[in-house]
């Protein structure tokens, strides 16, 4: 009995000792943890949603921006240095399911030094994604923007997320510099399945501009290190006129498989976009423009017109309506299919869609 009592006391002391640092670290001076998210859902209709040309109604999660839930935090380490972390995952409000990974959007830890920048380790957004996002007039809507990935066959675009990454971001007055490298983690083939990118951005007054580079390699083994290379160079900018804001950019993409085939072709494409936004009142803002892609290795030249209007109910909640129409320049084969929605394979050379929804941020 005495041995059991002594053992229980030892366990209790051990538990208390283990939890003592944790309790002390829940809210130390100069540290913070924030729970945040975007909840976005709407009702949507799309034409030509099936091979027979029929349309479909649906409840759509992320009609304006991807629904997400995240944690971010920092701790002041003194001498201008901070420890930072971010965990963020996609939430599908229509079904309650999560994205492809629990923290598929962000999962990193890093150190930030005043006047030098931030270094992060883990899964992160790519440099080109960070820099070009402010110059998309549709705000990178999941289904109504061609910026990162064109809804065509074959799909074209740049990588928005990278795993196993080391990333740097530094802000120096009006200039921001960024770079990342994602390890392929293929033994004996360092250049296989890796990704990297870099860029520079400028923002001061009404002017914002950026130039960035992104490359990713998929596949490859130690025995056969060759892999498919996807490369994008993106230049974009915006100018605030006061009563309206203009957006424009060019994304030049090449895809070079180690062994091209009909199922895995080589292609080059240039995506141009031009748009504008204008506040109609203190609560209402209208956005609109067009995306045009010259797919130089096919007969297709997809063109999409897109627009959205938002009505702010508060600083964190607003109603919205979105609409778009996309079509290709010809209709003579699989590689001219195009659509509005990147979450589904295009089934025809023309597709339209519209939706209304509500978004809440916290």
From TrEMBL:
UniProt xrefs under SUPFAM superfamilies: Porins
Gene Ontology terms for molecular function: porin activity
Keyword Ion transport in annotation: yes
Membrane disposition: Multi-pass membrane protein
Highest taxon above the source species: Bacteria
Localization terms from the record: Cell outer membrane
Record-annotated Porin domain positions: 17-328
CDD domains: gram_neg_porins
Keyword tags: Cell outer membrane, Ion transport, Membrane, Porin, Signal, Transmembrane, Transmembrane beta strand, Transport
GO annotation (BP), single: monoatomic ion transport
One Pfam entry name: Porin_4
Signal sequence range: 1-24
Primary residence: membrane
Keyword field contains Transmembrane: yes
GO CC annotation: cell outer membrane; pore complex
InterPro entries recorded: Gram-neg_bact_OMP, Gram_neg_porin_domain, Porin_dom_sf
Subunit structure: Homotrimer.
Name assigned to this protein: Porin
